[in-house]
Specification:
11 helices, alpha+beta, Beta-Lactamase, about 575 residues, Tumour Suppressor Smad4
Length: about 575
């Protein structure tokens, strides 16, 4: 809680650490040695981990040890806290969880519990034969401990993976070791190659045996073959094995671990998630692997899978933040294209608002000065939601703005319809209501498939503007003929998108046109701003917090007497 004084609690806590990835890509690891463990900007708030980023709150987050695990708590981060891309208020962390702060190009924290692989391996040591406790076996164990320590350090990703492959080559006494990773289309590509002696190996022209790789992937388990000449597996006849004169082979698929499950054995296949890559080693000499060496190799492979998995999560989080930033820019542009203020007009008052159910939306409204004291106004609703709908609203706005002045409504909408139909690959259309109001109250309009605006007149709310034309962008041969109606002073037109009438409550009942009319009939003498607020409040109270699935737009136009001066609304989108 913001402003809360936190006291140190002295208690035994599990071994855990945070791997800190700075915006420049450098890494370091800090041990979580106390609870609560405070995270934020600067030292004045008593933070145990201080992050140098002005966008991060001074009191940002805390790690609290609860019931044998660590819980992440939001302590006031302005943009929110995210675990593996999901926004959280509090969250019990599991090994490998990635913590971010809702910011592009900022810090990323990777949570690490002490490795389960080492305790399990030490337990199994009690059952290893006397030969496995020899100097050679102890040397292999030493290599394992060193490799795990380095894999959990702040080494760069490629360095950590190269070190892991080098250790696997040492354990197996292989001629070469390859790390293959998943590529688009389900193929596997060689990411790095090492040879004995810790030396790099050019990846061009390398030909790991595909027969063994396909077999390991089909079986979803590792293949460790000490002498291919003696194996029962159908591998020794493979052309690549014969051509390279291979005698021993190790192929271990690397899978992401399912993070929601804990406390199970490392070998439990039910915990395997997405395929991350393959550890591949071969030699032209037959080899012999002790039980300890096999365990060391399996543990190295599991640690390598963890490193790849963390790298994958980091990359996905960076991509999510990049897309979030770009969508935010798109939303700003879209909102900037909508009118925010309306010019003073002696014969009409206008107000409008647009709320998208997603970051960007498919609703659009506009008010256009045509000159000669004529004003056009319109509201449109593009089929679909999200980025695709937002792009079409931009096209629609450009087509309308570029041709509105001097055009008759029917000619204008015919042009817009043909323009959209000529881009049929977009596969979207738009309903719209377009009107031109003159000082004397003459309203010339076309309703192209849109819900009829509500006319508020003398305390009554009616919907007299039937949709007698096709939506634009739907049928190229569609015809658009305008109609004329005479407005009286005080008449109010309430134009809306179906985000109003199709708003749902928790029981999935619709707000509906009848409820909208009932709301408006009680607002005859309110200003246009007050009418707008009343409608929004009625919809909000009806929804009772239920998430809405459509964009919401209101455009309210009140006709005044021809020469009546009235202050125009300053409201906007």
């Amino acid at each position: 809680m913001l402003g809360q004084t936190t006291t140190f609690q002295s208690q035994d806590i599990a071994e855990a650490a945070l791997e800190i990835v700075a915006p420049d890509g450098t890494r370091k690891t800090v041990r979580i040695a106390r609870t609560p463990f405070l995270i934020g900007r600067g030292s004045e708030a008593g933070n145990d981990l201080q992050l140098v980023d002005q966008r991060i709150s001074r009191q940002c987050a805390a790690l609290v040890y609860v019931s044998g695990g660590f819980q992440l708590q939001d302590r006031g981060q302005r943009r929110g806290l995210f675990v593996n891309g999901e926004k959280v208020d509090q969250h019990t962390l599991t090994d490998g969880d990635v913590i971010t702060f809702g910011l592009a190009d900022s810090y990323e924290l990777i949570f690490h519990m002490s490795s389960d692989a080492l305790p399990e391996l030490l337990d199994q040591m009690e059952h290893i034969t006397a030969s496995d406790s020899s100097a050679s076996g102890l040397a292999k164990l030493s290599q394992l401990l060193e490799a795990i320590a380095k894999l959990h350090s702040h080494m760069p990703l490629d360095s950590a993976l190269s070190y892991m492959v080098d250790e696997a080559v040492k354990v197996t006494d292989a001629d070469r070791g390859l790390l293959l990773v998943s590529a688009p289309g389900g193929a596997m590509r060689v990411r790095l190659a090492r040879q004995s002696g810790g030396r790099p190996l050019p990846i061009e022209g390398l030909e790991p045996t595909q027969t063994a790789i396909r077999f390991a992937l089909a079986q979803k388990r590792g293949i460790i073959t000490e002498d291919l000449a003696q194996t029962d597996l159908d591998l020794k006849a493979a052309k690549s094995i014969i051509a390279q004169r291979l005698r021993s082979l190790v192929v271990i698929p690397l899978y992401a671990m399912v993070r929601s499950q804990t406390g199970a054995s490392l070998s439990d296949s039910s915990l395997r998630g997405e395929l991350l890559g393959i550890l591949y080693l071969d030699s032209t000499r037959p080899s012999g692997f002790s039980q300890l060496e096999r365990q060391v190799l399996d543990t190295l492979a599991m640690e390598a899978a963890g490193v790849l998995d963390n790298a994958r999560l980091l990359e996905r989080e960076r991509e999510r933040q990049r897309l979030e930033q770009e969508i935010g820019i798109a939303r700003e542009i879209q909102q900037a294209l909508l009118p925010r203020e309306f010019r003073d007009c002696p014969y009409m008052n206008v107000t409008a608002i647009n709320q998208s159910c997603l970051e960007v939306g498919g609703d659009y409204f506009d008010v256009i000065d045509l000159g000669n004291e004529r004003t056009a106004f319109l509201i449109a609703d593009v089929s679909g939601k999200g980025l695709g709908a937002a792009l079409l609203t931009t096209m629609l706005q450009g087509a309308l703005s570029g041709t509105a002045i001097g055009e008759k409504p029917g000619t204008l909408l015919s042009h817009v319809n043909k323009f959209l139909c000529s881009h049929s690959q977009i596969e979207r259309y738009a309903t719209l209501f377009f009107g031109i109001l003159e000082p004397g109250g003459k309203l010339e309009y076309i309703n192209a498939g849109h819900p009829s605006p509500v006319l508020l007149r003398g305390g009554r709310a009616e919907a007299p503007f039937d949709a007698d034309s096709f939506p634009v962008g739907l049928i190229e041969e569609g015809e658009y003929k305008s109609s004329i109606v005479q407005l009286e002073p005080g008449d109010t037109l309430v134009l809306f998108s179906d985000g109003i009438t199709e708003a749902m409550d928790p029981e999935e009942n619709l707000f509906g046109t009848a409820r909208l009319k009932e709301t408006l009939e009680r607002r005859t003498f309110e200003t246009v701003d007050e009418v707008q607020s009343s409608v929004l409040q009625a919809v909000s109270e009806f929804a009772r917090g239920a998430r809405q699935a459509d964009d919401l737009t209101l455009l309210i136009v009140r006709y005044l007497a021809a020469k009546q001066a009235a202050p125009a609304s300053a409201s906007g989108a």
